[in-house]
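Issue 218. Parser rejects a valid record. Input:
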Amino acid sequence: MAVAKTVTKELPFVWEGTDKNGRKIKGEMLAPGEAAVRQNLRRQGINATKVRRQSMLARARPITEKDIALFTRQLSTMMRAGVPLLQAFDITAKSHANPSLQKVLGEIKGSIESGSSMHQAFRRFPKYFDGLYCNLVEAAEQAGILDSVLDRIAAYKEKMLAIKGQIKSALMYPTIVIVIAFVITAAIMIFVIPAFKDLFTQGGAELPGLTRLVMNISDMFVEWWFFIFLAIGGGIYALLLAWKRSPAFKAWIDRVILKLPIFGPIIEKATVARWARTFASMFAAGVPMVDALDSVAGASGNSVYEEATRKIRQDVATGSSLTASLQSAKVFPTMLIQMVSIGEESGALDAMVEKVAEYYEREVDEAVANLSALMEPLIMVVLGSLIGTIVIAMYLPIFKMGSVI
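Output the parser choked on:
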């Protein structure tokens, strides 16, 4: 007599908790129920503080840098706990509710089972595991320190995500306000100003220059509004397309960004922090300096620093010291050059560069906080001036007619 096999349905859950070091982390997991989620997290050394069922609509999404950072952190935690590598991949894959990531991790596990090394399996997916990631894993495998290097990679990715988040938050607020201000101004020009124009035309009085200027702009918006919006949208799209496809245009944009009066210094500090953090992570993992500089160039995130780093790599490969090469590049701050010089003399180059990364990361934190405090009154002044000018332009003829009466 055949016995029916019971298939347990796994459901998506999102969770929050703390690891053994008290660091707050969160993620996703497929499991039969909440108790299974908590049990699985305990096996990973994670104390779950919140577990809830996830909507099925939220599951289908692409793999993000945050997913890779979380995967790396979980894999490092399990390897430190002595969990075998293949079993760690199994547990990690099940802990994510994103089917795309589960599929990638399953294929990586299959490659390792068939005899590939871990870094070779990762290199099959360059979209998610870049050269920096794979080079660090390769160096760790050769040195036998995979768990500690994975922990360093996870910390690196978390730092980079934090810096990117800070830059985005600094740029997002003024961008949204500018877009809303443009839409409101366009609506006033298209719908409100024409009503005033009809009123003033019937009065027959001569209009002030400011009023005539605003009305001419309004006429332009009423007649050409579709082409104005199309031109702005098309221009933004063309700029983004050229930035992605033209290295020369991207290099020019990167140079211009660094020279902006308010945002330029923040971008520069964030780039130096990313450069220093990447180099320190590579060098501490045992990657040779020339290979480390090659990965640092690609991870710098700015064409100016990428080009300078490739020149530094060539100089170091021909026998120059890193300090002299940094000085000849003329784009790196004096503090970084001094710390590198001390590190080369003392033999603690990775530690010195890591201190530079920490310093500039704090600088970015403070700069973003100051920028947020500065932008609010500045935007209010700009918007108030814009709307106030329109209001004054519309009321000047009314005041003039009142004085005549």
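Fixed in the parser; the record now loads. The longest helix spans residues 146-203.
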